[in-house]
């Protein structure tokens, strides 16, 4: 087990590359958590250091201290990774761990407090210590690709919410069909068939939609 490291204020500021007065300012603005007190001595740890480095990275990307404070508040109140992924729930999706600055780099200029809160509410994101967990690598890659194509992240998230409503109904339909003829344990084995039907029907629907434009 890695030994937990703690730092006095001066050492933490030096490691983070900021003046002590800036560290005090961040603490007053509640951008970092209060230190552990031992008498008159304040002790900081690696969580504080990670947060300071995140603040620096977000400032470099054009975020203001006010927006960073709102992001930090949303982060602190986000669902943890256990709530996000569930316990022992079968899944074909691969979760992705990201630092806040890595998430900001994926969605350049689009990680606003509003979008972050929407992604948390939708269940795309959860938190684990100083890391963010995205529920699905495929969704993360597609979302960032759409943003790179010029589609605002807010619209991508809104579309995801609307798609969720339809896919929940589709999952319920397939489960009902399968459970009428097979035991519950067959749901996991047969789910790739359900996915193939949806993918094929979506492809055909896109064909029909494109023909309408011709």
From TrEMBL:
Keywords: DNA-binding
Record carries keyword DNA-binding: yes
Species: Streptomyces plumbiresistens
The HTH merR-type domain, residue ranges: 6-74
Annotated protein name in UniProt: MerR family transcriptional regulator
Superkingdom classification of source: Bacteria
Spans traversing the lipid bilayer: none
């Amino acid at each position: 087990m890695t030994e937990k490291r703690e730092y006095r204020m001066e050492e933490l500021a030096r490691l983070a590359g900021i003046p002590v007065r800036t560290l005090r300012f961040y603490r007053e603005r509640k951008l970092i958590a209060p230190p552990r007190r031992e008498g008159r001595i304040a002790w900081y740890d690696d969580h504080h250091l990670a947060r300071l480095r995140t603040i620096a990275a977000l400032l470099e990307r054009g975020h203001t201290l006010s927006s960073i404070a709102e992001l930090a508040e949303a982060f602190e109140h986000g669902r943890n990774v256990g709530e996000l992924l569930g316990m022992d729930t079968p899944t074909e999706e691969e979760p992705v761990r990201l630092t806040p600055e890595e998430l900001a780099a994926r969605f350049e200029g689009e990680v606003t407090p509003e979008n972050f809160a929407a992604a948390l509410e939708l269940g795309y994101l959860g938190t684990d210590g100083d890391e963010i967990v995205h529920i699905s690598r495929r969704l993360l890659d597609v979302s960032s690709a759409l943003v790179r194509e010029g589609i605002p992240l807010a619209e991508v998230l809104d579309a995801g919410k609307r798609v969720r409503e339809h896919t929940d109904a589709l999952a319920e339909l397939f489960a009902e069909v399968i459970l009428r003829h097979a035991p519950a344990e067959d749901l996991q084995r047969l789910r790739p068939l359900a996915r193939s039907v949806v993918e094929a029907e979506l492809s055909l629907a896109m064909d029909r939609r494109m023909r309408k434009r011709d």
